[in-house]
């Protein structure tokens, strides 16, 4: 059988010298694996959270040490609802810093400024007044509309508040109304006289759809499209950043502002909802039919801080859905700023 040996050797040798099959014979080459950056993952999460609402969602977060900002719909205008009260507080503290007002000054509760709920009952008491500090607590911690409008009047009105904000270099945030007139606009009415309660009751009787919106927590699409009393998430972040950085107020006023905001009693399922127990958060919520907002500063375990603003509008799924969007966004930002050391510090991204 030795005569077969040369043939087998030749055949084996031919395997090495024969041309290799073309690449097509093995199918297309595998695509290279793309490593998703931490920033892209975070923005992808924000986009996913937005699908929890059938409305429009805006999210902006910022590392307050590096200035790194990540945003989803960060330049879209949203109704601020009660989140505008952060700007009101800033203007009041600026007056305090200028020596024009004191925290222990007593402000009269003018019956003409009374709306519904909260301390409205106090406005019918002749001579009733509350200190500026107590009014700030009621406004920022309980979101009391009556206390807010006393402060708006003392601040010089909505225009003075907007001027204060723009004077800080913040663009994309405007205050056009006190709370009572903001609610009038949300209801779709523009009364010229009468008490808030009288006007609201008359409007609900004349237009049953107003009551339907209230009961169903449904959005007023026309109101959501108006430019008055709106802010972008990034602009609200800019305002909070100005406070936190000490560019807007004295150290004492800055400290008092955030101390009051740390006692916020509303929105327990929003920014704080999914954060680790005991996380220090100073925030302010805003709620209206189809609108759910929250803005604040969160402290990480290592002492670093980040700011977050989440706005939801035109939502008909209800406050539970809106709260979930805000809580998920805040937790994603918390994990990102704490656990993503390879992120591109200082870079800003918007989608």
Automatic annotation (TrEMBL):
Reaction catalyzed: a beta-lactam + H2O = a substituted beta-amino acid
Beta-lactamase class A catalytic domain sequence ranges: 58-312
Signal keyword on record: yes
GO molecular function ontology, one term from the record: beta-lactamase activity
Signal sequence annotation: 1-23
Pfam families recorded: Beta-lactamase2
Domain of life: Bacteria
Gene3D superfamilies in the cross-refs: DD-peptidase/beta-lactamase superfamily
EC number: 3.5.2.6
Keywords noted in UniProt: Hydrolase, Signal
InterPro entries noted in UniProt: Beta-lactam/transpept-like (IPR012338), Beta-lactam_cat (IPR045155), Beta-lactam_class-A (IPR000871)
NCBIfam families noted in UniProt: bla_class_A
Family to which the UniProt record says this protein belongs: Belongs to the class-A beta-lactamase family.
Name of the featured protein: beta-lactamase
Native species: Sphingobium olei
